[in-house]
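Exercise 7. Predict the structure of DNA topoisomerase I from Salmo trutta.
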Amino acid sequence: PLWEEGNSNNGNKWTTLEHKGPLFPPEYEPLPNNVTFFYNGNPVKLSLAAEEVATFYAKMLDHEYTTKSSFQENFFTDWREEMTVEEREQIKKLSKCDFTHINKYFLEKSEEKKAMTKEQKQVLKEENNKLTEEYGFCELDGHREKIGNFRVEPPGLFRGRGEHPKMGKLKKRIQPEEITINCSKGSNIPVAPKGHKWRKVQHDNTVTWLASWVENVQGNFKYVMLNPSSKLKGEKDWQKYEVARKLKLKVETIRRQYRDDWKNREMKTRQRGVALYFIDKLALRAGNEKEESETADTVGCCSLRVEHITLHQEKGGQEFMVEFDFLGKDSIRYYNEVPVEGRVFKNLKLFMENKDPEDDLFDRINTTYLNKHLNQSMPGLTAKVFRTFNASTTLQEQLNKLTTADMSLEEKLLSYNRANRAVAILCNHQRAAPKTFEKSMQNLQDKVTGICMNGKTESVVKRLEEQLKKLQLQMTDREENKVIALGTSKLNYLDPRISVAWCRKFNVPIEKIYNKTQRDKFAWAIDMTEEDFQF
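Solution. The predicted structure, encoded as tokens:
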């Protein structure tokens, strides 16, 4: 297989790279004349630029976002910047804007799309496939490789996760003049759309991206990358889990060391020891230093402030309890109460002495320092590796504990999801309960009610009992999964070989665990794993 072709490492990721450049979204299509925007009850014909931005908001009227004041304020500010002077004079308050006609128009359009015949849908699909064939692949060292996100994001309103302070801001249309192309010298260089030119074309074979630009809302770089199933990505993924498995052999030594650090004379070393204990025991993210711009106030381990933890000498019958409450990555709240060792508790008290709530808990250390120290204990080790290591170890232990050969397929799958849930809880991967949750539960409940067993022959009763058991297992699984996101850990923190080996050992079809996209991403693991693999 490709990922075993060996990598001639000296920082070079490829020798030749040729592609078509990214695919741009279609131009804005103006609203028909009979679809009107109203201000203060009067119809207003908007300029094209203002109309386009208005449609972004109109499309989201049924969404919870448009009820949030920060979304409304950010949208209105950015929308006004797109208006003409006259429009700005006239349109002063969002509360007087009526987007309902535009909203209705787009609802009707989407209903039309749903009502298309099979043949019409097929035509669309074929047009799409043609574009994917043309733009969705590149030539990398003579191999045809799939590109991940070859489309430039269309303009729209920024949503963000959690309570993001920039929600509602305008994500502007990206022009070719903002895009840097990366390909090999002497290849067919991508042609910019008519009347445009690229920002620049470069030939940098130490990076794997094909095109990049900066998005305007947060000022982040966006990259067109290879698909996860490509050779380069598979190789990188495999290496990531191999580093985590190496940590398994070293972890006892590292744990002994950080425990010793708790009684070190130097405050900096003590803080490092306690921070590592949190990262290891609670799978906290390291928490990088952020630019002091107006991004969301989220923290990780090293950036915890005094206000984020509360110490309880005793709580609920357990001593030395630490209560964590902070917003982590993507503004997801982390709330946890954990008993810690006495020494850790004493040190935390010390770190909090004479500090204000908004002061740093670990004021002497940062992530860079922490990772430098870890790299000395083991080459390639960073705080992130602990998360991968602890997640994968948890999955392996839980699967070994929860699965037996005599289980039915449904029971095995419930066990697998329970093991996966243990990981998601450890990593604090939460989600809001799905909007359709109640409905799909009700559907299952109806099926259960439908299985009424009186006056049936014995063989039929037996079959119905099995169906009932299946449905009950599905319901249990769904209920337990209501507010937990399994996908993140499955794709990023769990060595796929654990799951593949488990499937082989217990005769579970791999497609019950991994969908098509995931099977492509983990092709390397499916290809190389025997049933006796243990992380």
